[in-house]
Amino acid sequence: MESLEMGVATSQERAGALARAWQQLMGLPKNSMAKVAELAKKAMNLGKDDPRRITHSLKVGVALSLVSLIYYYQPLYNSFGVSAMWAVMTVVVVFEFSVGATLSKGLNRGLATFLAGALGVGAHHLASLSGKTGEPIMLGFFVFLQATGSTFMRFFPQIKAKYDYGMLIFILTFALVSVSGFRQEEILEFAHKRLSTVVIGGSACLIVSIAVCPVWAGEDLHRHIALNMEKLANFLEGFGDKYLRESEDDASNRDESLFRGYKSVLGTKSNEESLANFASWEPRHGRFGFRHPWKQYLKIGASIRQCANRIEALDGYLTTKFHAPPQVQIRLKELCAEMSMEAARALRQLSSSHKAMIVPSSATPHLENSRAAVKALKSLLETASRKDATDLLAIVHAATVTSLLIEVVDCTDKIAESIDELSSLAHFKTAEKEKKHVECKEVVLTVSAPEATVSPENGTSPGRLDPAPVV
Amino acid sequence: MESLEMGVATSQERAGALARAWQQLMGLPKNSMAKVAELAKKAMNLGKDDPRRITHSLKVGVALSLVSLIYYYQPLYNSFGVSAMWAVMTVVVVFEFSVGATLSKGLNRGLATFLAGALGVGAHHLASLSGKTGEPIMLGFFVFLQATGSTFMRFFPQIKAKYDYGMLIFILTFALVSVSGFRQEEILEFAHKRLSTVVIGGSACLIVSIAVCPVWAGEDLHRHIALNMEKLANFLEGFGDKYLRESEDDASNRDESLFRGYKSVLGTKSNEESLANFASWEPRHGRFGFRHPWKQYLKIGASIRQCANRIEALDGYLTTKFHAPPQVQIRLKELCAEMSMEAARALRQLSSSHKAMIVPSSATPHLENSRAAVKALKSLLETASRKDATDLLAIVHAATVTSLLIEVVDCTDKIAESIDELSSLAHFKTAEKEKKHVECKEVVLTVSAPEATVSPENGTSPGRLDPAPVV
């Protein structure tokens, strides 16, 4: 009986295993289909996030096809021969996403090929003077010396930043030309062909890169800076509006990704540096002149990052509710909210005037308002302490939050300063139209918001910033 | 008279201008000499800062000379011919500073050349089926399709991180092989020669890179993490020792570059990421296995950076003297100093055990001490507030500094946690020798420092961490 049962069991098991294997086998195409679908979805998202990626891919395809015409068209092939491949290679290696990067690589490659080619021909000539046995030794020595020296030069920070690729091509071309000369009779022709094919490839890249939907690194950097200020403003607005003014239930409703967008600002240094480097290679385009002060963008970027750092420190305190001695709680919250909202408004104004490339005068009133709120806050703390005995532990949280917020406001001032500098360096226009607009608005505000009637909810009118303590 | 004076003046001026021009002309060689001297000094410093730079340069020179032997040695040249230049090119492009980077580039290049070569031969075969007129059109279409697709694939973050260079070589080789096939009869030989010369060049790089003073990216990353912890400890030590314990005159004497070393920690993210990427390509070496958890290093790096961020926020408050209500000033300063010093000690222990790759148990008592100080601090603030009325403004500064310092201690805990994780992931040894050493020390401490006799200067014995308020 038992053995029979066991037999049944094993046969069942076997059947089960078989069925499973069959399912897996059938599932294979399904799985791979699912994977392909997932991949396609990812690719769609990549393209949707930045459609310029699709254009760029097509542009590379076009440039490469253009250059490979040298192979197909007999007269062209006759004059270049196998060297045509240098053109293909140049296109693949030089064509980068932005015009600036392509220009930087192309010019580096062209110039380095020219210099190293000339030097290689010279080295070959010098080596050939020392006879048949001496020549390879001399050549090897030259190549060794040049490679060692140039590789070491790549460690110089200034060279690494702008001419690293050029140094690489310099080593490469020198070695190729001088060593090939040992075998080929027409070394001058070899060097000349290499240079002209590199120039053809580089030109194809540049023409396609600039003529078809150009991507300017400078424009990217300009927009990137404006966007980062917006991100800081989003946090400060959320902080003032949700954390300080409303209940904790609402706090959980806030749009997290918008609120914590500042986090992506923290690690942008290297990206900004390479964008500024590429931008400095770009010719005049759109609203950007040839000598646009791109270095100033790095300064602005640094102060934005510093502000984001302070905001991160502040963010660490938002897990608990705002906690202050009851007698100052309402007024303190109100002033902090005021500071935060005004700093956010100033950042938004700075961002939009930066985007439009006009002098950021419209941000000034908001900056002044936030500074006035800081003063009011200090005098509030002084008066309050004179009047009441207070719980130390209760004040620690509030004091820290307030103090960090004041730091954030200071950073906002710094950002405004560096943007002011940029606007004078780059000769931004003063916004006369904008001015009239703002003046009209101010008249409306002073009429509708007299100094006396300030409710905690209406904490943004200029009148309520009088530093006289209210508590 | 006037005209005479003027004549004298102009002739004097002219003589002056001539003299100046002469001086400048004479100064030219002097100036250029000075510039050359300056350059030489910079180069010396670069070499002194990291002597591996000099070794690396020499290694590149050696590898390049080795590979160019193909040109000089007749039997070798007979079998490769002009294709020998691919070997030269591979060495120049693939040889990177660390073994991991060289391996990553070499493997990428080798594999991509193999795959693209095979695919290129296939494409050429397919195109040749469509007749003499159809062939270039088909080839052009294939090249366009492949270049566009592969360029787009380079935007996938996972591919960009590890296989970007491989994709580039894939596009390049496919275009070269398939298009060259239109002109050359022996396309298989072309592809084969290209692959074998690339393999020769890559092998030369790898052999020289590993055999002569190898630079391991993994070891660099490991040391870099330990060094960064030291930098944080330096700040915390300076903060506890100089800022909190001594007068302001001494504060100016502190070693600024050591004290503010934490600033260099802030922008290390991209550097750490590339080091971890390269390290993951490296074979087993020294104390690092093949599957060493390099990703955990990124986690540790992130928590170190977060701690540095908090320290930067704290640093902003050190411009003014520590400012607290007089009745708690001494005790508060003392506890803050305690926290700071203990956190610094914990970081130093973590750093040294990380460097030696042993389980960081010796840091635990210091971490506990700093946590105990945090508790004592909180209870001090509570008791003080119950007893005395106090000046709000006076407490804001102290409260903020204290609160930020508590955050720093929390971050230290996080660093310790992530290093603990690493030590279990990477199977660090427990330090049995180290253990005995620590036990001996503890016995000495409990004997020499009884709980009652604690002076403010001697604020580091474990006994004084009792949270009972002293004020």
Automatic annotation (TrEMBL), chains A, B:
It holds the Pfam family ALMT. The chain crosses the membrane at residues 54-73, 79-99, 111-131, 137-156, 163-183, 195-217. One of its GO terms (biological process) is malate transport. One of its GO terms (cellular component) is membrane. It is found in: Membrane. It comes from the Eukaryota. Keywords: Ion channel, Ion transport, Membrane, Transmembrane, Transmembrane helix, Transport. It is a multi-pass membrane protein. Belongs to the aromatic acid exporter (TC 2.A.85) family. This is Aluminum-activated malate transporter 2-like. It comes from Rhodamnia argentea.
